[in-house]
Amino acid sequence: xxxxVLLHLSSNSNHSDSLPSKLAxxxxxxxxxxxxxxxxxxxxxxxxxxxxxxxxxxxxxQASASSQKRKTFQMDESREEEKLDQEGRTTKSSRGMGQRxxxxxxxxxxxxxxxxxxxxxxxNGAEHKxxxxxxxxxxxLMTLNxxxxxxxxxxxxxxxxxxxxxxxCQQLEKEINxxxxxxLEKERKRLKVVSDLLIAxxxxxxxxxxxxxxxxxxxxxxxxxxxxxxxxxxxxxDGQALKDIQARLKSLLEQKDAIEKQRKLxxxxxxxKTDASENDQGLAEEECIATEEMYRARIFSIKRExxxxxxxxxxxELEKACFIRELKRIRDEDGSRFNHFPILNKRYALxxxxxxxxxxxxxxxxxxxxxxxxxxxxxGLNVQWSEEKKQNYIRHAIREYxxxxxxxxxxxxxxxxxxxxxxxxxxxVLQYCxxxxxxxxxxxxxxxxxxxxxxxxxxIFSGLVYLNRxxxxxxxxxxxxxxVLFDEAGAAKLTDFGLSKIVEDEVGSQGMELTSQGxxxxxxxxxxxxxxxxxxxxxxxxxxxxxxxxxxxxxxxKRPFGHDQSQERILREDTITKARxxxxxxxxxxxxxxxxxxxxxxxxxxxxxxxxxxxxxDPYLSYVKRKP
Length: 628
Ligand SMILES: Nc1ncnc2c1ncn2[C@@H]1O[C@H](COP(=O)(O)OP(=O)(O)OP(=O)(O)O)[C@@H](O)[C@H]1O
Hints:
By secondary structure, the chain is an alpha+beta fold. Among the domains are: 233-272 and 285-335; 343-431, Phosphorylase Kinase, domain 1 (2-Layer Sandwich); 439-621, Transferase(Phosphotransferase), domain 1. It is built from 14 helices and 14 strands. The protein has a 6-stranded antiparallel β-sheet. Strands 1-2 form a two-stranded antiparallel ribbon. A two-stranded antiparallel ribbon has the order 9-12. The chain starts with a helix and ends in a 12-residue tail after the last helix.
C-alpha cells in the first residue's frame, strides 16, 4: 500500500522535478525581456500562428508551451485524483493537494483568457496584452513554485514514512524470527521434559520389574547354571512355592496312607472280636462303624485338600510360565543395544522392551510428533549374513510393510511408519497394544470361558473379513496366539503380516499356489499346506483352519493336533496330514454349537471347509439370532 503511494508520489515528483528548471528558464526569460517589443503580435487566430512563425517569437512559443503544460498538468492532477479515489486511500496531504489544485483550477477558470482579437492593430493593445501575459505567467510561476514546494515536502514526508515503514518491517521480521526461535527452543525444552519424564517412568518400571522378579524368584524359582565338565548349561531351580506344594502333597499322601493302615487294622480287629459276647459285640460293631465312618470322612477331606493342592500346582505352573517369560524379557532388555532410552528418527523415544521375536525386538516407545505410545519393532540383520540374505530379508520386510500399511481396521494393528536406523537395522512403527497378546493370556489362564473365547473369535473374523473384502485380498497365513494382540480396552487385533499372501484377481476358485511351503507355525496350518506331492493351492480357508485351532486352544487349553510335539516332529510324523478328525476333551464342558463350529473350521478337505466370508456368517458367531 505504502509502496503504491510512494510510487504515485515519486511519479508526481518526477513530473515536478522538471518544473524547477522550466520555471528557471521562464524566470530568466522574463527578467531578460528579450522579446522584441517592436514586433507586432501575431494574429491570435490559428491560421495566423501557422503563417507567421518569425513574428510569433520565442515568447509566444513559450507561452503556448506553458499553457500546454498547464493543460497537461491539470490532466495529470485529475488523473492523480481519480487514481487516489479509486484506491480509496486519499491521504490528508493529497486531499490538501487536491484542494490546492482545485483552487488553482478555479483561479485558472476566473483568470481572463486573452481571446484572440481580430483587431490587434495598435501598440497600446499589444503592450496591454504583453503585460497581462506577464502577469499571468508570474501568477503561474508562483502557483507552480508553491506546488513544487508542496510536492517536495510531500516527497520528503513520504520518503521518511517509507524509511519508517522499512524500519518497522525489519523490526517486525526480527521479532517474528526471535519468536520462532523462542518457540522452537520452548518446543525442544517441552519435548525434553516429556521424554525425560517418560524415561524416568520407564526407569522406575524397569527397577520395579527387576525387584518383582527377584522377589518372585524366591517363591517361583530361578534359572541356575550347571556345570557338566567344561560345559555350562542353564537349569531351572524350583522355588519355595513348588517345594511347599510338593511337601503338602507328600504329607497328604502320608496321612492318607496312615488312615488306610488304621482302617485295615480296624477291620482286622473287627474280625478278631468274633468270639466276644453278643452284647460286647453289638457295642464293638457300633464303635467300628463310627470309626470306619470317621476314617472315610478323613480320607474324603484329604482328597479334597489334595485336589486344591493340585490346583495350586497348576496355578504355580502358569505363574512360572509368566515368570520365565518376564525373566527372558528382562534378560533380552539387558542385552539389547537399544536399552539406553534412545530417541529414534528424532521423534520416537524408546522406553522398555516389550518382547523379542525371531529377528526383531519390540520396544514400547513414545511418538513425540503425534503424542501417542507406539510399538517400535527393530529389525536387526545378522551381520554374519551374506549380502544376498540381507537383501532378501529387507525385500521381505518391505513387502510386509507395503501390505500392512494399507490395512486400516479396528481389529488389525496399524502400521504407521518405517525408517532405517543403520546399515543393518531398520524399524517399523506399529500401533501400541497395551494389553497382553493371546499367547501370554493362554499362558496365564490356560482356558478361557466360552463366552470370552467366542467374543475373541468374532473380533478375529471381523479382521479377516476386512482382509477378504478389499480389492486386494490378503491371506494372513500366520494366525497364532502370539499374533493376536489386545489393546488397553481389550479389543483383539491381528498383527504380523510377514507371511501373508496377496490373492491376485485372476486366481480361480481353487485358490492360489503356495510358493513358500515350509514357512509358518505348523500347529496352526491346515493339511493342504503340507502337501508335498504337488504345489498346494491355498485360499482364505487357511486362515479359517488357523482360527479353528485358536478357538479350540482357548476353550481346551491345548492345540487339537500335535500339541506336545515340536515343529520338527510334526513334519516328521505327518501329524497334520493325518489330522482328519478333531477330538474334544470331556472337560471343560463346552457347548455343542461351539464344537460344531470348530469341526466346520477344521474340515480336513478344503472343499468342505468354509471360506472366511462364509465362516464369519456362521450362526455361532452371530449375536443376532436369525429367523428360521
Ligand atoms: N504392536 C504391539 N504392541 C504391543 N506389543 C507388541 C506389539 N507388537 C509386538 N508386541 C510384543 O512384542 C513381542 C515380540 O513381538 P514379535 O512380533 O517380534 O514377536 P513374535 O511374534 O513372538 O516373533 P516372530 O515375529 O519372530 O514370530 C511380543 O511379545 C508381542 O506381544
